[in-house]
Amino acid sequence: MIIVLICVAIVSFLLQDVFFGRNSMFGQSNVVGKVNGVELETAEYQNRIENAQRIAQQNMGGLSLGDEDIQRIREQAWDGFLQEQIMSGQFEKLGIEVTETELVDIVRSKTPHPVMMRYFVNPETGQYDPTLIDRVRENARQDQTGQMTAQLEMLDRELHDYQARNKYITLINQAINYPKWMADMQQADNAKTATISYVHVPYVTIADSTVKVTDAELNKYIQDHKASFQVEESRRIEYLSFDVIPSAADTAAALADLVKLKEELDTTSDPASFTKLNSELGFDDIFLSRNAIQVPEKDSIVDLPVGGMYGPYRDGNAIVFAKMLARKIQADTLKFSHIFIPLQSANGDSIAKKTADSLEAVIRGGGDIAALATVFSQDPYSKQNGGEYTLAGLARVPNEFAPVKEAAYEGSVGQVKVIKLPNLGYSVMKITAQINPGPAVKVAYLAKRVDASSATSTEALSAANEFASKNRDRKSFDKSIQEQGLNKRLANNIRPMDYVLPGLGSARDIVSWAYDADVNDISPVFTLEDKFVIAVMTGAREEGTAPLEDVRPQVEAEVRKNKKADQIIAKMNNPATIEAAATATNQPVLTADGVSFASPFVAALGPEPRIAGAAFNKAWGTAKSSSPIQGLSGVYVIKVNNYVDAEQPAAYDYATQRLAQERDTRQMVDQLLFPLILKKKSNIKDNRAEIYRGN
């Protein structure tokens, strides 16, 4: 039985790895992209997306994925392919290989791969047991379907990649070194602080209107600072939305339908089932405390007597009647742990039941349910944290596991139960805490959504079509909006593979149009879920250095600041002393204490790294005033009055400091190596926008 459960667990884990598998199950198709010459076909890309969506839905308890979730998964599928191929190339270039002996050692060592530790644990001892692997492999040889063999091959690939990655990271980490000379230098930098006198001429003393900048100057600044102005391909649109809003007649029709249903609800003997079948909100068969209930008119509803009705009232785009079904005393917060044992086959009920009963006996005898859950539970919600649930207020579990939650509320703390989940399997559950018991109510909400009628939708479409037909160029588009007092909106930084636009929701057709259109083009009328949209293309940005019009405000600010600095420095006229600088600019001489070379922040000035550095310039020391320094907020002239010994730790421990510095560097490398170095140095071609144009 243990072997069967282990195999199921491995499949669950490896489904995630299929998402990043190397070989597509489908035939030749269009190429959505490639990296370093390796192509990703449309069929494989779609396969990756579908596998990831299935896993995401499982982790969400079967709930539907939103547009944002799907868009995120599409990007993860692409990034997964890039990471596979780029890292494989790195392994090959560096000659990183994984031998059979190493794979055996991964399995047999005291610190095996995490997935091995997760699934190959003996429930009787709670310890990792490599002999279970031998038993699984023996069963695989006898499996006529070949499925177990395929699962083990996937596991072997996972172990192989894990070991290759470990070798690669080890090579990188071995190159990280924090030498003693650097530690000594930083120690010296931190050993003193400076007290300075300074003259500060802020840039704001010169009006912006008096400093003229030309496009030639702005473009030169961009070219001189290209690295700061690298952008990805994007589009910019402005649009007019004709929203489909239910009319008064639509609301009246919905209310009339709801009143008829309410009359039936008044007389039915089973209000819960009636509400489940007839309410737009469905029915939650749960008790909630007053604090946990989050609906309009809550106070009036919670105070209803059992059988009482309140309404109608508005809740978003729905009209609602609320009926009080029951009251009781219930814990506000509930904690329990459970192990889910699924049915394995047509005759698997008895096997699953025996396993559940065995686990129950072990737990009643003092066994650690958390350790057992890590090995045996197939509940994706809780496997990662030892089967534990904490439920408070509106917290929910998947519908399939609702009997577990109900039993946990109804039972007593410390109780262990085996609960049958129809058509799924069994749950071994232990109640660990019932916190803050108090009044709770069960309410049925009979709701009718107020939808726009076809007549209302047609009216909005007619208005959109009329506007579009009369305004076929950008000038008339903008003029009509202004004359009619309409609300024009903006969607900026639209990427080629975007499916969702802020304010519009799912809008792939608009994205595709934007990438086919020219600047100033007017779109056709787009039909979205609850609106009709007309857009105008206002900007097309290609990948590379940003054009001036896209970054004009920030570039103008920098160029104007530089020109102001030149004016201020010229006015100072190479001052020999700080007093001369003060006289030339009519600014006072001020002081600042505690200036540190190790920190760019000066207490009296804010972030001014050039001032902090200049205070420790040995060419000036305490004898001379500095040359004019262009800072972040103005131009400075400084003079060091004295240096003060800073408070230092009792002892300088190079070994400890080295360990800390190298640890921090390794963490930074782990985070930045792939996205900022390996990925940028790779030859990546992303064709997805072309392949999925309009999809």
UniProtKB/TrEMBL annotation:
<keyword id="KW-0143">Chaperone</keyword>
<protein>
    <recommendedName>
        <fullName>Periplasmic chaperone PpiD</fullName>
    </recommendedName>
</protein>
<keyword id="KW-0812">Transmembrane</keyword>
<keyword id="KW-0413">Isomerase</keyword>
<comment type="similarity">
    <text>Belongs to the PpiD chaperone family.</text>
</comment>
<keyword id="KW-0997">Cell inner membrane</keyword>
<keyword id="KW-0697">Rotamase</keyword>
<feature type="domain" description="PpiC">
    <location>
        <begin position="331"/>
        <end position="433"/>
    </location>
</feature>
<dbReference type="InterPro" id="IPR046357">
    <property type="entry name" value="PPIase_dom_sf"/>
</dbReference>
<keyword id="KW-1003">Cell membrane</keyword>
<keyword id="KW-1133">Transmembrane helix</keyword>
<dbReference type="InterPro" id="IPR052029">
    <property type="entry name" value="PpiD_chaperone"/>
</dbReference>
<keyword id="KW-0472">Membrane</keyword>
<dbReference type="Pfam" id="PF13616">
    <property type="entry name" value="Rotamase_3"/>
</dbReference>
<dbReference type="InterPro" id="IPR000297">
    <property type="entry name" value="PPIase_PpiC"/>
</dbReference>
<dbReference type="Pfam" id="PF13623">
    <property type="entry name" value="SurA_N_2"/>
</dbReference>
<dbReference type="InterPro" id="IPR027304">
    <property type="entry name" value="Trigger_fact/SurA_dom_sf"/>
</dbReference>
